[in-house]
Amino acid sequence: MAAKKLREGVSERLDALAAELLADGLDRVAEGSAVNVLLAVEDAAGTVASYEFSDDGAEQCLEAGRACVRRLAREGGDGEAGIERPVRYALCYEGAVADEDGAFQDALILEFGEKGYHSYSGYSLFQGRGTGDGLAWTDPAPAGELDPLL
Length: 150
Prior knowledge:
- The chain is built from two helices and nine strands; from the N terminus they run H-E-E-H-E-E-E-E-E-E-E.
- The protein is α+β, with helices and mostly antiparallel strands.
- The longest helix is centred in the first third of the chain and has 20 residues, at about 10-30.
């Protein structure tokens, strides 16, 4: 059986979902709050449901977020959250990215994908946690391709 050919690029709807989740993460950083692992999923009708994973270590929370996307797709959505089977998702969490000198910089990392498309990751560096309007961040930069969750 031939592998399904995935489309390249990011749709406007996925770009908007990921940008909104990143903005939520940056708001939390500006407040001085932990970002944990944030997940937003959207169904074909445009309904968005949000989830947060924080009851375990960072890697376990990230895997729980990824597993949630797969579960929602398998189970046809989440009736409690009012969402049908997801067609796009974005995950956001804190991490660190090495700069040109090998020093690690604080970053919010995004993973995002859409049914039928390749999935990607990106990051936005930040400085000034807890400084409100004093928070500085970079435009999102690409970090690579990921295995699709949908």
